[in-house]
């Protein structure tokens, strides 16, 4: 630093040389320090050290007062140039550091070449989808949807459907009984027929009854302890077997395709007389015979028949004046046939690999 002393040519000369040298040294040193500052904090340190209020440049500027007034403007201008150059360099360095930090952060967080993250989308369970399709087809034919309870009385599930306790047909339905005497989980949706009739008498009926059924069975690829059924019931004057066949063939065409043939085979149910089972042409081999249809060319899809007079009577309808038809189908079975699903257990296992296919 320039010595304080009486102003004069000599002192002035020396002082000026000292200050010029000090400025040049400071310029070089500060520029190098700015260049090597690696981050914002280091940069700030450099700024304070050289350009701050108590920094090196400020100290030099204070020394100007000792100079010959005649020399002050020249050296003052020089000092200001240094100051401006350093400030510009500081700003440039700060921007360069910021830009580098920004692009580093961007490349760390956003890799535009990564595949997008899939948004998990919920959807309807395959059973719900097929139930809705079945309901829609029958709604188009004028059937209303009627709900009846899963927990039923033994009387509704069996007796009123013409299945007395001693009847061998009870063997067809293995049953979950509750601890309450005479209360069980329905083994089929058919008890809903009695409920629908008792509520509708004496009006004509055209309803379907979708719902869950339960059977006390060994769970295998072909049988579950719970599954859906869709029951159908039409009661009125002059309802005939022709109506039954027409309705169900029309359903099969809408469900499986208009070109698909259907057939009725004689069968037995205690609550229908006569009884039948309906088959559709195998959807896989189209009737030629394959493993799915066990070489028969046909797939059984539902049971049906004309409502038994005793059942009509139990529902409150006079069998001499009224007649009706009924049918029952298993939506899971239909889904299995449509999509060639080989194991019914997939439906309630909640395995997303299965469910996501629908
Ligand atoms: N309830 C019968 C079953 O579970 C199906 C059926 C319903 C048959 C209505 C005839 C009429 O197998």
Q: Mean pLDDT, as a whole number? A: 89
Low-pLDDT runs of 5+ residues are 1-11
Q: Biggest β-sheet: count, sense, barrel?
A: 7 strands, mixed
User: How many separate helices?
Assistant: 12
Spatial separation of the terminal alpha carbons: 86 Å
The oligomerization state is: single chain
Short description:
The protein contains twelve helices and nine strands. Helices cover 43% and strands 18% of the residues. The structure holds phenylalanine.
What does this structure look like?
This protein has 358 residues and is an alpha+beta fold. Helix content is 43%, strand content 18%. It has 12 helices and 9 strands. The chain has helices at 9-36, 40-51, 56-63, 72-109, 126-140, 154-157, 191-200, 241-256, 309-315, 331-339, 346-349, 352-355, and strands at 144-145, 151-153, 183-185, 205-214, 226-236, 262-269, 272-281, 298-307, 323-329. The strands form 2 sheets. Strands 1-4-5-9-8-7-6 form a 7-stranded mixed sheet. The protein has a two-stranded antiparallel sheet with strand order 2-3. Strand 6 (262-269) and strand 7 (272-281) form a beta hairpin. Helix 1 (9-36) runs parallel beside helix 4, helix 2 (40-51) packs antiparallel against helix 4 and helix 7 packs across helix 9 (309-315). The two termini are 86 Å apart. The model is unreliable at 1-11 (pLDDT under 50). Bound molecules: phenylalanine.
């Amino acid at each position: 630093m320039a010595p304080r002393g009486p102003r004069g040519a000599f002192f002035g000369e020396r002082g000026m040389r000292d200050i010029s040298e000090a400025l040049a040294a400071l310029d070089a040193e500060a520029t190098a320090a700015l260049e090597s500052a690696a981050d914002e904090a280091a940069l700030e340190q450099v700024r304070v050290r050289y350009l701050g209020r108590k920094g090196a440049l400020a100290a030099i500027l204070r020394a100007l007062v000792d100079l010959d007034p005649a020399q002050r403007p020249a050296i003052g201008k020089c000092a200001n140039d240094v100051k401006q150059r350093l400030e510009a360099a500081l700003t440039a360095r700060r921007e360069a550091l910021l830009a580098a930090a920004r692009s580093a952060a961007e490349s760390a967080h956003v890799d535009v070449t990564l595949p997008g993250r899939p948004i998990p989308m919920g959807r309807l369970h395959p059973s719900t989808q097929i139930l809705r399709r079945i309901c829609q087809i029958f709604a188009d034919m004028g059937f209303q949807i009627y709900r009846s309870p899963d927990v039923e009385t033994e009387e509704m599930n069996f007796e009123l459907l013409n299945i007395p306790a001693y009847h061998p047909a009870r063997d067809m339905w293995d049953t979950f009984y509750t601890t309450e005497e005479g209360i069980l989980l329905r083994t089929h949706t058919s008890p809903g027929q009695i409920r629908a009739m008792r509520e509708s008498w004496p009006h004509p009926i055209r309803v379907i009854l979708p719902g869950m059924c339960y059977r006390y069975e060994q769970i295998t690829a072909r049988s579950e302890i719970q599954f859906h059924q869709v029951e159908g019931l039409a009661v009125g004057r002059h309802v005939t077997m022709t109506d039954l066949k027409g309705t169900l063939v029309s359903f099969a065409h809408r469900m499986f395709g208009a070109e698909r043939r259907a057939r009725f085979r004689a069968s037995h149910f205690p609550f229908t007389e006569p009884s039948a089972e309906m088959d559709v042409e195998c959807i896989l081999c189209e009737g030629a015979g394959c493993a799915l249809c066990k070489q028969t060319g046909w797939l059984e899809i539902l049971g049906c028949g004309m409502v038994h007079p005793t059942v009509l009577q139990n529902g409150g309808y006079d069998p001499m004046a009224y007649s009706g038809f009924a049918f029952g189908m298993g939506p899971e079975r239909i889904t299995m046939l449509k999509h060639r699903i080989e194991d019914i257990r997939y439906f309630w296992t909640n395995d997303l690999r299965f469910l996501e296919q629908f």
